[in-house]
Write a structure and sequence with these properties.
This protein is an alpha+beta fold. Helix content is about 40%, strand content about 30%. The longest helix has about 45 residues.
């Protein structure tokens, strides 16, 4: 390879880097411009992350204006989370439907009658609530509900009496669900909370309270049952569950596009080594068409994900690219060039490296292992090569 050919190949690689950068930026613009417009539509339909606060029970202090906080003697809460992944544009949104069913017990341990004010804020004034019920003992509440102010009930308790305050509703949300324990005091008595999900990839956000018990929902159904139980708990940590998110096609195609030149550099090294070992003359124009064949993978993949499943789009784009490059090398360089080795190289450097983006956190390790294997292969194949003769021949 002459110096002129070397700089021509570097120029071709630079052009490829520019093309991949433009494609990656275009993919990002398509993704997030559509995401801003369609994301607001998803929020309008499904709401925002649901945050339910614990109720506040208070008693008027005789002869004073302030109120005394009253702790519920029992907190029995059941929650059902039904995940439904929805796609808008090039992004997936983890939407869910939540059924909240809670029963709180309050008791009067004084010698006089108490009138307890129960207040439960609703997650959002803009949300839609179905199957809405409020009960005091076994009697449904006849009071209206202000979604901005939440639920408010006045409960009379005789000395030594225990009564229950029950709330049930169904609503929808996005991304995560959380329950703020303990209200202002941060103290919860006799907590018995169960959250049932229809998914197993449960994640607990930082700063949240992990469940005491996690068990499968059932043999015939996917999902988990999460249990929080405590006799007398003091905490400021909420119970929170982050719903699993699917791999988003838009950001995936952008990351692969930006990574495209790395795959090409590895393949150029392989082709250059083959040219030296087999003494096959390879012109810079051959490198140009190989670059175009590699670029075809990312270009086709970016637009196929609009219409096909992301894995199917990846397989089709990879097949087209490998077919283009291998058939071109075989036709242009003849039988002297080991096109089967080139095919394996493209499968490794382009397909495998790119597929590592489907596995979160595996891309760096995949490239590192690939680089080490490539180095080991080159060292073994060129160990007995007389480089002075090679460079004299190239000169």
């Amino acid at each position: 390879m002459s110096v002129r050919h070397f700089f021509a190949i570097c120029l071709i690689l630079l052009l490829g880097v520019t093309a991949w950068w433009i494609l990656g930026m275009a993919s990002q613009v398509r993704t997030y411009s559509m995401g801003e417009r369609l994301g607001s539509a998803v929020t309008t339909l499904w709401g925002t992350p649901v945050v339910q606060h614990a109720p506040r029970f208070s008693v008027q202090v005789p002869g004073a204006r302030q109120q005394r906080e009253l702790l519920a003697s029992r907190n029995h809460i059941t929650v059902e989370l039904q995940l439904e992944q929805r796609r808008k544009g090039l992004l997936w949104y983890p939407t869910y439907e939540v059924l909240f069913d809670a029963e709180y017990a309050i008791n009067n341990d004084t010698l006089v009658e108490q009138r307890v004010r129960a207040q439960l804020p609703l997650p959002s004034a803009d949300a839609t609530y179905d199957e809405f019920e409020v009960w005091v003992d076994d009697q449904p509440s006849a009071h209206g509900v202000d979604v901005k102010q939440g639920i408010a009930e006045l409960i009379a308790l005789n000395p030594g009496q225990t009564r229950t305050f029950k709330v049930r509703y169904r609503t929808r949300g996005l991304y995560r669900w959380s329950y703020q324990l303990g209200g202002e005091t941060g103290r919860v008595r006799q907590l018995d909370m169960t959250v049932a999900t229809n998914f197993e990839a449960v994640d607990f956000p930082d700063g949240s309270l992990s469940p005491m018990v996690v068990e499968p929902l059932g043999v015939s159904s996917d999902g988990l049952q999460l249990h929080w139980q405590a006799d007398d708990l003091i905490t400021r940590q909420p119970v929170a569950i982050a719903l699993p998110e699917k791999l988003n096609p838009g950001p995936l195609t952008a990351r692969m596009s930006f990574f495209g030149p790395v795959c090409l550099v590895f393949f150029f090294v392989l082709v250059g080594a083959i040219a030296i070992l087999k003494q096959v003359p390879i012109h810079p124009m051959h490198y140009l068409f190989v670059t175009a064949g590699f670029f075809a993978f990312n270009l086709l993949f970016v637009y196929l994900v609009d219409w096909l499943d992301v894995h199917l789009a990846f397989a089709l784009a990879a097949g087209v690219s490998v077919g283009l490059v291998v058939s071109y090398l075989r036709a242009s360089l003849g039988v002297a060039f080991p096109w089967k080795v080139a095919a394996l190289g493209q499968l490794f450097y382009l397909v495998l490296f790119s597929y590592s983006f489907f596995l979160q956190g595996m891309t760096g390790l995949t490239v590192t292992v690939g680089a080490i294997l490539t180095l080991a292969m080159l060292m073994r194949l060129t160990a007995k090569l007389d480089w002075s003769v090679v460079f004299q021949r190239q000169a």
